[in-house]
Amino acid sequence: MGQAPRRCPNRGIATVTDTKKASDLFIECLEAEGVEYIFGVPGEENLDFLESLSDSKQIKLILTRHEQGAGFMAATYGRHTGKTGVCIATLGPGATNFVTAGAYAQLGGMPMMMITGQKPIKKSKQGRFQILDVVEMMGPITKYAHQLAAGENIPSRVREAFRLAEEEKPGAVHIEFPEDIAEEQCTSRPIPASVARRPSAESKAVRQAVEALEAAERPVLVIGAGANRKMTSRMLRQFIEKTGIPFVTTQMGKGVIDERHPLFLGCAALSAGDFVHRAIEASDCIVNIGHDVIEKPPFFMDQGGATVIHVSTKTAEVDPVYFPQIEVIGDIANAIWQIKEDIVPQGKWNADVLTQYRRAEEEHAASLCDDARFPIFPPHLVKQVRESMPEDGIICLDNGVYKIWFARNYTAYLPNTVLLDNALATMGAGLPSAMMSAMLYPERKVMAICGDGGFMMNSQEMETAVRLGLNLTVLILNDSAYGMIRWKQANMGFKDWGLTYNNPDFVAYANSYGATGHRVESSDHLREVLTHCRDTPGVHLIDCPVDYAENDQILNHDIKELSQKL
Prior knowledge:
Elements: E1 6-8, E2 12-14, E3 20-21, H1 22-32, E4 37-41, H2 47-54, E5 60-63, H3 67-81, E6 85-89, H4 93-96, H5 99-108, E7 112-118, H6 134-138, E8 144-147, H7 154-166, E9 172-178, H8 179-182, E10 185-186, H9 203-215, E11 219-223, H10 230-243, E12 247-249, E13 264-267, H11 275-281, E14 285-289, E15 307-312, E16 326-329, H12 332-342, H13 352-369, H14 378-388, E17 394-397, H15 402-409, E18 418-419, H16 430-440, E19 446-451, H17 452-457, H18 461-467, E20 472-478, H19 483-491, H20 506-512, E21 516-519, H21 523-535, E22 539-545, H22 551-565
Parallel strand pairs: 4-5, 4-6, 6-7, 7-9, 8-9, 11-12, 11-14, 12-13, 14-15, 15-16, 17-18, 17-19, 19-20, 20-22, 21-22
Antiparallel strand pairs: 1-2, 3-10
Helix pairs in contact: 1-2, 1-7, 3-5, 3-16, 9-12, 10-12, 11-13, 14-15, 14-21
């Protein structure tokens, strides 16, 4: 039997086949997914979508000054919340400007949806003007790329995109929304998300892992990006307290466990030869938790070497240097809980053999961090930033040689308080990442830490930060060069050439946006400025000259020689 018509106020007779514009339906679907923000730079192909968005009481448009900044903000929203961050751009050049941010989210495991416009697909009106095959372009760098060819399909395509973006391993998805589809009339309605739980690890695999750990003498945990989840952090803390097994982190695993813990062995920031690498080499059983071959590997496997246990949501991607003997696959937090419940701590386990490397690293760091020279010495800079930031403060690192200093020497206390990118390792993400952090957590102190090179790649977003009324400090480490590549150049024995430039007056530049600029003049002055910016609302920029002259000697020679002696 048919359904009786229902009467709507001021609209006369309506039926269940009421239609609505496809762009309105798209916004409804995003609202049903819990979307709070859409970041981006709309173009004329997005105008139906923009009009529909203007009527939403739930979703706020965050207009940025470049699509890349919008994409980095959306990805960081996903990184912090586990929910999909959404960004929008037009066709052609707008869509191509999303490529770097899409790759950043995809490699970094951050759920993000990119929505791009397109000319009408049913009837051309401007030839091939601005038209690229954006879906084909996005395919290799996303989990899902799709052109909407009918308004009625919007609910299923949006639901599928969100499902894939948030499913482990999280990543980027892309939907192309052509002009003529956006203005279609549709009868479809949003599809609610299903309730899905990740499978638990199989008990026989858990038993194998426990047997290997109990047979070992010097086991160690390596905590990677996939372990950076709230419940996993909690289970790992309980596991470490019960067993006394020491742990190291990858760069993107920093903060999963409080690094003040006496069993913390360090962060694998350098590629090899650091104190932390020596500790891993001295182990006979390595438990790799949330490991991803995207990250620079913290160790290389050898045939006949240490037993490696892979604990993750997915089986290990086989690599010439990574082929674990035991795999525990399923929800990571549950897997760690199962291992914790089954394992019996062994008297033969000897953490002291491994923790000696950490003690040696701390002694070496202490010998450097009080050097108050000017321009500022990197180890001293890290110490000052750590002392100025509260326990739950968030630092967001752009990409440069300072990332190694911070990953090694900055003590992370809580998950997601050190945001760095060791997957795509792109420049330009530091400022937008910090802006998103400041939006999500207005009560917390947030600092972007950028090289002068990385800052200038998205410096225009200073205007966005000021317009949004954010409380944020941008610390620029100024060496008038692409310092990371210059460091590598020196290490390879090449002449110092082709990597230096001039900078604008950063203080005047910040002030021109309505932010407040500061220029550091000494070590003591840096301490004063950091305190002032932390305690004063608004957007602050600190121009801090740095002395990178000893990067090559310390990072490439001294550390490797000292650690090898142990």
